[in-house]
Amino acid sequence: MIEKKSGKINEIVYNNTVYYNGKYIYYPTITGLKSMLDEIISSKSTTDYLRITPFYINELLDMQIEFEEYMFFIECRDCFDKEVQENHIKEYLDVPDTPRTLNDLRLGTKLYPLCKNDDVVSFQIALEKYKDSLKEILPKLMEIAKTEMGLKEVHLPFGYFCFEVHSG
Q1: Does position 102 have pLDDT exceeding 70, yes or no?
Q2: 156 domain residue, yes or no
Q3: Is 1 within a domain?
Q4: What's the pLDDT tens digit per position in 70-92?
Q5: Structural domains in the chain (count)
Q6: pLDDT tens string 26-48
Q7: Which residues have CB under 8 Å from 36's CB, separation 6+?
Q8: Which residues 6+ apart lie within 8 Å of 132 measured at CB?
Q9: Which of 30, 116, 121, 151 is positioned for an S-S bond with 146, CB 3.0–4.6 A?
Q10: How far, in Å, CA of 99 to CA of 43, rounded?
Q11: What integer is the mean pLDDT of 114-140?
């Protein structure tokens, strides 16, 4: 059973990713994710962290692929400086145990931001940037899925993107 954590954002994530009194997890599609992000942004609060990992499922092939290198991870800290922020981004750009790496520092700044605790505006801006970056990211993910899963045109109507969302 999945426990409901305290806090506005944790409650929003729980309400959008868990059902049947916490027995089952729901992975939102792009529409559900954008709606959840809008709800989080309008809550005017922050949380310790928010992690969103995209994956693609194809029902016809009974296959799925997770895109850890395109995970969004925002962490709110007491304090940090520019050097800490840069090191944080670089740490996520080159993860040795993933099948693919993201070597795009510009995109990394959108996917792995830091913000100060209780800095609602920076938190909201980071979520808006992530939401906007999905227009760039999802076509890249589709190309990776096509290549790595051997997807053909006939398979595409049976596939969709989902997102695993955690907060703390």
Answers
A1: no
A2: yes
A3: no
A4: 999 999 988 877 777 777 677 76
A5: 1
A6: 999 999 999 999 999 999 999 99
A7: 12, 13, 16, 17, 28, 165
A8: none
A9: 151
A10: 36
A11: 94
